[in-house]
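Z., the sequence and structure:
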Amino acid sequence: HYRHAAAIVGAHMYVFGGRTHGGRLPEGVRVLSLLTCEWTAPEVEGALLPRSAHTMDSWRHMVVLFGGHRKREYLNDVALLDTHNLCWVMPADGDEGAQLNRSQGDGVPAARAYHSATLIDNTLYVFGGEGARGLLAPDVHALDLLTLKWRRDQCSGSVPPPVRDHVAVATGPRVLVMGGSTQQGYVDGSSLSVLDTDSMVWETVRCGGGVPSARAGHAAAMAPSTSDAGWE
């Protein structure tokens, strides 16, 4: 599979979506036990449209899924996978709950794929990606997971250009954005775009050393710090 998404809850990794070598959109959730390294395909209650290029983030015992691409359609739905009860909450299958979910708040993001979604505390920050008309504006949309309401945050500072296929990770209250594809081409690792979610101010951080080459469609993960240096 490729263009799938995964999230870890406890000692399990949950995988959903993507495409096969033949371009097919596989259905169902796959779970990897990080203790036994064994895969399972559990029965999950509720239907969710197969998709690719979506995002999944872990929150409490839930996996929060947003957006993606299905055939010729871009999506902007939210679904929560309850890993305790193995069911989709507010599934994105066009039912009444999903329609209500799509209309919550004044800052509902446009349908998109190849975006990033980063969880800080109880808020999911969605940035970038591609929609039906190409690259989307570099707006930041925030979903309050306690109320399931969207807002579009006003940002200042060194706002990055429209980008897709980038990565974004959280460190404290900050979101670090690296790489991706813009109208000018692929982005290298010589600088990072950093969003402070307390002030909603972007800054550009210059990086040295063995700078990663320009790339898109890559992956990144934040590991806990072993020292007091750097950002908290």
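Helices lie at 96-102. Residues 14 and 31 are 5 Å apart (CA to CA).

Let me know what you think.
H.
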